[in-house]
Design goal:
five-stranded mixed beta sheet, alpha/beta, globular, four-stranded mixed beta sheet, 361 residues
Length: 361
């Protein structure tokens, strides 16, 4: 028995030595390449309605086209960007006003980008390109159709995918029902910032109803809730909110309404993107992927708008009217303008004491 036991132990020792020897021999199998793994860390502080869903889909598509590149998306508050203990990511996505000192966070972007000049200017400070918009939404004036003397049009039929079908864009928009709105307890609500600038285009001085005491002091979410609950007759809403409310109407959980689109677009509804100083080369590839034609065409799933000047995404409905207005003239808020300063300038524009171009630079 002892001899047998010794033979077994010797055999096991031999196997162990053989395995150790094999592990030290490099294995080179022809045709088998292991790609280098790269993780792109991405932070996002906010986005226009629907943009994060679009982004998630495009990050997945990017990883499939770039084997070995993984992405990790994390939602953070804007304050995290200036936290001295935070380890910055490779890519920062943000809304205008979330970053006010780009030189401290972002690396300059080199090369040519297929964007409209107004969008490029939105990501510049001191003539340096620090960020790019990836997509945008706009501000429109929502009107409770109970104010209109004629019956409201029935909601657009729902497609097989559950989304409202496109309706034909009117050749001429009905005007603002000033008399009917003025008789409402709260005729008009609006957030501050670019919403006020767009409203100044729609309702010049002398064509506005009386304004409530808290006018332009509520957040976009608060204004949307007030309109949805019929606590105001008309309201400035984002195009993302218009899309969301249209879905409620189609589902029988909302009320008929219509939207008035300004003749030109003035917006702060931009998803901006910048790179940090130590970002790998794949981070710049990601930005180019997100502004490429295929990714930009996918914005239609969320009724968002393209930053390219060689694409037309919509043929009918409010998205088409907004797109046409943006093609006529588009003023994008500078991404690095502090929120309080942007609101102060917007109020001056609304009161007629400052021109629009000054307010968005």
């Amino acid at each position: 028995m002892k001899i047998r036991r010794l033979l077994i132990l010797a055999a096991l020792a031999g196997v162990a030595l053989a395995l150790l020897f094999i592990r030290q021999i490099p294995v080179d199998v022809p045709g088998l390449d292991t790609p280098e793994r790269t993780l792109l860390r991405i932070w996002i502080t906010g986005s226009p309605g629907g943009a994060q869903a679009w982004l998630t889909q495009q990050l997945s598509a990017f990883s499939k086209q770039h084997p070995g590149v993984m992405t990790r998306l994390r939602v953070v508050p804007p304050e995290e960007l200036t936290n001295p203990e935070a380890v910055l990511p490779d890519v920062i996505l943000f809304m205008p006003g979330d970053v006010t000192d780009p030189a401290a966070l972002l690396a300059p972007l080199d090369g040519d980008w297929p964007l409209r000049q107004s969008f490029l200017a939105a990501g510049q400070q001191d003539d340096v390109q620090y960020a790019l918009p990836l997509c945008w939404g706009a501000w429109v004036l929502a009107i409770d159709s109970a104010l209109d003397p004629v019956p409201a049009a029935t909601p657009a039929p729902t497609t097989l995918l559950g989304r409202p079908a496109a309706t034909a864009a009117p050749t001429e928009q009905p005007g603002y029902p000033l008399q009917a709105a003025s008789s409402a307890e709260v005729p008009l609500q609006s957030p501050g910032g670019a919403a006020l600038m767009a409203l100044a285009d729609l309702l010049p001085t002398g064509q506005r109803p009386s304004l409530p005491e808290d006018f332009a002091q509520r957040t976009p979410a608060e204004v949307y809730a007030a309109f949805r609950e019929r606590r105001c007759a008309t309201a400035m809403l984002t195009t993302g909110q218009i899309t969301a409310f249209s879905a409620l109407v189609s589902a029988g959980r909302g009320f008929p309404f219509r939207a008035i689109v300004p003749e030109r677009v003035t917006t702060d509804q931009l998803l901006m993107a910048g790179l940090t100083a130590n970002a790998p080369a794949q981070a710049a590839e990601l930005l180019r992927f997100l502004v490429d034609v295929q990714a930009q065409q996918a914005l239609t799933a969320q009724e968002l708008h393209t930053v390219r000047d060689d694409l037309t995404l919509y043929a009918a409905g409010v998205p088409a009217t907004v797109e046409q207005a943006g093609q006529r003239e588009l003023c994008a808020t500078n991404a690095f303008l502090p929120v309080q300063q942007a609101h102060a300038l917007a109020w001056q524009v609304f009161q007629g004491t400052a021109p629009l171009p000054t307010a968005v630079q």
